[in-house]
Amino acid sequence: MSAVTNQPLPIGQLEREKHIEMIFRTFQSSCGPSCISRAHLPKPGVSLEPHEYRPNVELPGLNAGNKRKEYLQQKAHEMMSRAQREEQDFRDADFLSELEMVSQVHITARPQLQGPQCVSQKIYSIAAEDRRKQMCAAVEESSCVCLQCCGPARACFIRGYDCQGRQVFYFERPLRVDACCLGCCLMEMRVYAPQKHLIGKVCQRWSMFTPLLEVCDADGASTVRIHGSCCPCRCVSDQQFQIVSNMGERIGTIWKKWSGFNDECNMDHEYFGLKVPPCVHPHTKLLLLAATFLLNHMYFEMS
């Protein structure tokens, strides 16, 4: 038996004798791979062809199938991401179209709990025209340490949500020094879309006596300016800041009013808003809305 199964493999043009080849094939077909001599197996350290002695190697068809599966998964992920971006763009367009038709924006801060507390959030209600139609709600987030130590000069984030709870804008205010007379640490408010791409920012400009803010687009170009009265005081219930175009034309106002006495707490500094003509671009209105929040921190809100 061993004399048959241990016959060497044919080399080159040489062939086995016909009767030996016939017996070898008979034993190989009946016994299977177990009848193959160990002498025919690869020796240690000898490199072999992948298709001969590596049963776990990935075949070309299997490798192509895996690549196709990865390709389909990547395409599905891209389609989902694009669908999410289109849905978010639709939400932004919906809010901006609603903001385009608005000429007056009323912002009211919701009352908070009285007494010693450390609440790092503040909620504002944003309504249009006669305060009957609520457009969205804004949530201001800060830290308790920054809120108690810095007060109106605190760093914060303001997120706007529509009636369905979807985010429609994002404001970011870095930490600055309150009532700084130097030009190196002036107030600023950055405006972002929900996808976190920059729309523009509101920057305070150095001025000797009167407050001066400048509204800039994403490229830093000035669109409108905001002027205030000489040395505004937080204790004054009614205040107005003029919105002026680059040509010097007055186009609107940012105001603070006393909404009336409240039995629970006197909230004379918690009602403010914006008045602009409907022809103003929605992005500019959104930047002016951010300027309204910034002025509330700087001149309206009580320390």
Short description:
The protein is α+β, with helices and mostly antiparallel strands and 303 residues long. The chain is 29% helix and 26% strand.
If you had to describe this structure to a student in words, what would you say it looks like?
The protein has about 300 residues and is α+β, with helices and mostly antiparallel strands. About 30% of the residues lie in helices and about 25% in strands. It has six helices and twelve strands. A twelve-stranded antiparallel barrel has the order 1-2-3-4-5-6-7-8-9-10-11-12. Helix 4 packs across helix 6. The longest helix is centred in the first third of the chain and has 41 residues. The radius of gyration is 37 Å and the shape is elongated. About 5% of the residues have low confidence.
Structural class: alpha+beta
Mean pLDDT: 76
Strand order of the largest sheet: 1-2-3-4-5-6-7-8-9-10-11-12
Describe the biggest sheet? Answer: 12 strands, antiparallel, barrel
The fraction of residues in strands falls at 25-35%
* H/E series: HHHHEEEHEEEEEEEEEH
Q: Termini distance?
A: 103 Å
Count of helical stretches: 6
